[in-house]
Amino acid sequence: MKTMLPIAMSDIHVHLEARHVEMLFGQGHALTKWYDLTIPGQFACRETVEVVVGPPRRQTQVEISLGNAFVLGIDPPLRESGRLEGTPGATLVGTAGKVELESGVIAAVRHIHMHPRDAREYGVADGKRVRVRVPGDRGLIFEQVLVRVSEEYALEMHVDVEEGRAAGVKDFQLVELLR
């Protein structure tokens, strides 16, 4: 059974609905790809309301760290991406306008994206919580890491930038799944 997998840090970013792309950046605006992310089909964009992640989503979602939350005066729940009910809102400002969100701000839980093939090879299932060891001088064990399995995912663990820096993470280094 496999145990090693790559990890990457996630900084503050926004997933926008198509209508919010137009409200923020102008009628008919298409997001400009900056670089591909490791999740197939997703990409970082040149447009900023900090960093916008494409393609457009069904519902706008803002992901911040707990440090960002403190500075912004927002108290977001720790949530799995896409679980936005009961979350606080925020105002997003773009080059062509602004959007007032009633909800949609979360602090994402640390998680691992896996293709079903990876989940079989690692002996885990969607929704399972696991432990992951980060090696090194500042190494530590992350508890309660959520496993997310989808045909659309590529193998990668995500932690927010604050968690990653505290553990001395280098993007795409290998970490150990402890289960």
Sum up the structure in keywords:
six-stranded mixed beta barrel; Barwin-like endoglucanases; alpha/beta; seven-stranded mixed sheet; 179 residues; 15 strands
Walkthrough of the structure:
The protein has two domains: 11-108, no CATH class; 109-177, Beta Barrel (Barwin-like endoglucanases), CATH 2.40.40.20. A seven-stranded mixed sheet has the order 3-4-5-2-6-10-7. A six-stranded mixed beta barrel has the order 1-14-11-13-12-15. Strands 8-9 form a two-stranded antiparallel sheet. Helix content is 16%, strand content 40%. By secondary structure, it is of the alpha/beta class. The protein has helices spanning 18-25, 66-72, 116-122, 161-166, and strands at 4-10, 13-17, 33-36, 43-45, 52-57, 61-63, 78-79, 90-93, 98-101, 105-108, 111-114, 129-134, 140-149, 156-160, 174-177. The protein is built from four helices and 15 strands. The longest helix has 8 residues, at 18-25.
What is the fold's blueprint, element by element?
Elements: E1 4-10, E2 13-17, H1 18-25, E3 33-36, E4 43-45, E5 52-57, E6 61-63, H2 66-72, E7 78-79, E8 90-93, E9 98-101, E10 105-108, E11 111-114, H3 116-122, E12 129-134, E13 140-149, E14 156-160, H4 161-166, E15 174-177
Parallel strand pairs: 1-14, 2-5, 6-10, 7-10, 11-13
Antiparallel strand pairs: 1-15, 2-6, 3-4, 4-5, 8-9, 11-14, 12-13, 12-15
Distance between the termini: 11 Å
Taken from the alpha-carbon principal axes, the silhouette is globular
Mean pLDDT: 94
Summarize the main sheet. Answer: 7 strands, mixed
Cα Rg: 17 Å
Biggest sheet strand order reads 3-4-5-2-6-10-7
Order of H and E elements: EEHEEEEHEEEEEHEEEHE
